[in-house]
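TL;DR need structure tokens for one chain.
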Amino acid sequence: MSNLKVSTLKRIFIYNAMQLDDPDPDMKTEEVKEFWSDVYPELTQAVIEGPEYKDDCIQYTFRKAVGTKGQGKAVSKKEADDVADKLKIMTALARIVARTEPGARAVLPPSSSLEPV
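>> reply
TL;DR here they are.
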């Protein structure tokens, strides 16, 4: 017969690279977000990511919702990353076009010669 040690994992909440204390381990993560929104009002629209299990802790991350003002829809990190990637491509193409002579027709290089983002 083996002896098992049962312990509760400590919850960690991350927001803007800050670690926020867990006000009450019995609170749901949404309630913790509401608790901290008194100090950080932007958390009212934040998305909760996690849990991630790290060592002897459970980590949740409060991420600012990305979207159009008034839209009310939170955007996932993947969607935000996709938009950021597309903006990088558009910026790279704008630089190519800006290098052409004024009045000349911009000629883009073949897509195979472009570096992946």
